[in-house]
């Protein structure tokens, strides 16, 4: 069940209705989701379901679903399982023949991609890059990627990440940093990696951030005829 990434008006009528009808709501953070449910006058009981306990709770949840209960899964913002808890439970449901339905709705990377103005006919979603182990290796792989790339970056790591873009992608690579999407202070900062880095070095970023990076441009040199005058005459 997608939930708004900022603007509560992005909650769908269908989502509100179903959250009122289900037997249980699984929430990433019950305190955060509690505010959302209170706003829409939803009194359905909640259980905490996050990356630290999802492995332990799945067996019990599958038993409840098999017994006929309907359960809704929400994350703090956006669509569950997109860099958020949800995959493990979905996989377990599929393996047990339990019907799964994902409602369409809010997610951060789609508006960021469209807002960027970069090619979106083909793209790759990277989510969060590895913290330490494997980070350099991933950068070396992405440096050769020709599709537009989408990454999630925490605000306190944005400047460091942009500096790494300059190192691995080159200072002229086109990027767009989308910040606080759907909120009052939404910002879409476009430019080269060097330009955007300079901006955020002067203006410390805040809020949820999505970075869209142009893919590597493949330059194909035109084949030149190098025939001699005699060869052309023949």
Characterise this structure.
By secondary structure, the chain is an alpha/beta fold. The chain is built from nine helices and eight strands. It has helices spanning 13-21, 30-39, 54-66, 87-95, 109-116, 135-142, 158-169, 193-202, 229-233; strands at 24-27, 46-48, 71-74, 123-127, 148-152, 174-179, 187-192, 209-213. The strands form two sheets. It has a five-stranded mixed sheet. It has a three-stranded parallel sheet with strand order 2-1-3, covered by helices on one side. α6 (135-142) links the parallel β4 and β5. The chain is elongated. Residues 221-227 have low confidence and may be disordered.
Low-confidence stretches: 221-227
Give the CATH architecture of the largest domain. 2-Layer Sandwich
Oligomer: single chain
The end-to-end distance, rounded to whole angstroms, is 72 Å
State the CATH topology of the largest domain.
Methyltransferase, Cobalt-precorrin-4 Transmethylase, Domain 2
**The CATH C-level class name of the largest domain:** Alpha Beta
Structural class: alpha/beta
What number is the mean pLDDT?
92
Q: Kindly report the name of the CATH homologous superfamily of the largest domain.
A: Tetrapyrrole methylase, C-terminal domain
* Most strands sheet: 5 strands, mixed
- Report the portion of residues in β strands: 15-25%
What is the CA-atom radius of gyration, in angstroms? 23 Å
Global morphology: elongated
The percent of residues in helical segments reads 25-40%
How is the largest sheet built, in terms of strand order? 4-5-8-6-7
Total count of domains: 2
Give the ordered list of helices and strands.
HEHEHEHHEHEHEEHEH
The count of strands amounts to 8
How many helices does DSSP assign? 9
InterPro entries: 4pyrrol_Mease (IPR000878), 4pyrrol_Methylase_sf (IPR035996), 4pyrrole_Mease_sub1 (IPR014777), 4pyrrole_Mease_sub2 (IPR014776), rRNA_ssu_MeTfrase_I (IPR008189), SAM_MeTrfase_RsmI_CS (IPR018063)
Function: Catalyzes the 2'-O-methylation of the ribose of cytidine 1402 (C1402) in 16S rRNA.
EC number: 2.1.1.198
Subcellular location: Cytoplasm
């Amino acid at each position: 069940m997608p939930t708004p990434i900022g603007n509560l008006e992005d909650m769908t009528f269908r989502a509100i209705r179903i959250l009122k009808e289900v037997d249980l709501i699984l929430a990433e953070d019950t305190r955060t989701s509690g505010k959302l449910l209170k706003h829409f006058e939803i009194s359905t009981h909640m259980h905490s379901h996050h990356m630290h306990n999802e492995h332990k709770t799945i067996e019990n949840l599958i038993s409840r679903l098999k017994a006929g209960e309907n359960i809704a899964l929400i994350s703090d913002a956006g669509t569950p399982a997109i860099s958020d808890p949800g995959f493990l439970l979905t996989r377990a449901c599929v393996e047990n023949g339990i019907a799964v339905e994902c409602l369409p709705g809010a997610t951060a990377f789609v508006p960021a991609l469209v807002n960027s103005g970069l090619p979106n006919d083909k793209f790759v979603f990277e989510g969060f890059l590895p913290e330490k182990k494997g980070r350099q290796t991933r950068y070396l792989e992405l440096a050769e990627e020709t599709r537009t790339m989408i990454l999630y970056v925490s605000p306190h790591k944005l400047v460091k990440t942009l500096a790494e873009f300059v190192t691995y992608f080159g200072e002229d690579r086109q990027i767009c940093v989308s910040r606080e999407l759907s909120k009052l202070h939404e910002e879409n900062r476009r430019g080269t990696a060097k330009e955007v880095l300079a901006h955020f070095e002067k203006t410390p970023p805040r809020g949820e951030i999505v970075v869209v990076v142009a893919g590597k441009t493949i330059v194909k040199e035109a084949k030149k005829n190098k025939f001699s005058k005699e060869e052309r005459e023949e």
